[in-house]
User: Fold this.
Amino acid sequence: MDSLNLLLDGFATALTPMNLVWAAIGVLLGTAIGVLPGIGPAMAVALLLPVTYALEPTGAFIMFAGIYFGGMFGGSTTSILLNTPGESAAVVAAMEGNPMARRGRGAQALAAAAIGHFIGAIVGITLLTLLAPTVASLAVNIGAPDYLAIMVLAFIAVTSVLGKSRVRGFASLLIGLTIGLIGLDEMTGQQRLTFGLLHLADGVDAVIVAVGLFAIGESLWVAAHLRRTSGEAIPVGRPWLGAEDLRRAWKPWLRGPLIGFPFGAIPAGGAEIPTFLSYVTERKLAKNRDEFGKGAIEGVAGPEATASASAAGTMVSMLTLGLPTTAVAAVMLAAFQQYGIQPGPLLFERESDLVWALIASMFIGSVLLLVLNLPLAPVWAKLLQIPRPYLYAGILFFASVGAYAVGGEPLDLLLLFIIGLIGFAMRRYGLPVLPAIIAVILGPTAEQQMRRALQISDGHLGGLVNTPFAITVYFVVALILLWPLVARVIPRRRAQARSAR
Assistant:
């Protein structure tokens, strides 16, 4: 009851005219910046951090929350329409959203994403309000073997469901893990795959890899096949969801937050892992599995709701422990410290008004996001009617600007186009791009957690599976790997039993 009363006080603060203005500005800026390939919400918050020094803390963090949720939706917009994620959490949206857009259902895909974001945010923020202390205590008890098990599950799940064969999926995963090795070994300080270039000592930024494989690779692939296509504009489609769409989407909308929120609250890679797991779940549960890969609305609704709930979950660790689990949370932590505020167990006591106003503003920002973007779905979908040469020239321009903005180094542009050529080659030989992306994002962290677990166990491999949580996750991994073989053996045995009779 105390939490409810404090939340009501937070709404009283967040609903003041000036704070509503900051929330609206944050949502609009976040959506606009998220639409640009390579410039996600983390970069938006980082760029706007100096601008907000003149604001009082409550208004600044209300705007940051709007940028966070708006940026996630903006990233899914370019994923769906152009197969070019604006940020890493929007990668999964391209898998089914882009085929929907190519079939003239871009507006419906965007509407499903907008509603999914709204439902995921509302459920996630409600759980944040009610369960923050409990989830935070669980996050403290999860160790290195558990983190490694979660990441292995993400690797196996994504390579097992994507592409025409598992071999190609694991080949793509290997490419991503190799790119993730570039840089300094965190344990020994030795250079790996840097070829003597000092700039590569810090590794290749995941944004550059994602933009290169998706935006540049897609643009080169389209350019290579442009003469073979008719060049006709893709129809936008009706700007609403039909009864059949709603029937197929409502369950993924509700399942997504249950996957996203717990993963967002623990340091396990942000929204990337739960969105992939949500996609795998929806693909397994769907009655029309054959439609996946061709534009199944479940593959948009579930992961988008998951991503939004995961964003709310990241606030649990950040506010209660001072532990950022995503890039945006890390930037917001720096913003807290800039104002002389230290997130942690005492934050809810010392800065109660600020925290509850921030949580209330997340509810308000989610409503603003739906109100602003649902009517704009057909407008965004009209991007598909721009002639392809101009459209992909614009994508190349914004992708280059985004990659250059990451580090401000000309070498980043060279890396971008080298990785783009790799993305083109992967498309040419039928390798799925997504396993490579998730390997780049999670590979270095998985290596660090594995080596940490081995150090704790003095090098014994049993240290990787010495917790009930890790054992459970590896059991799930074994099921995913062995299920296709079991599914083949069971019908054969049944057929042999019938023939014996």
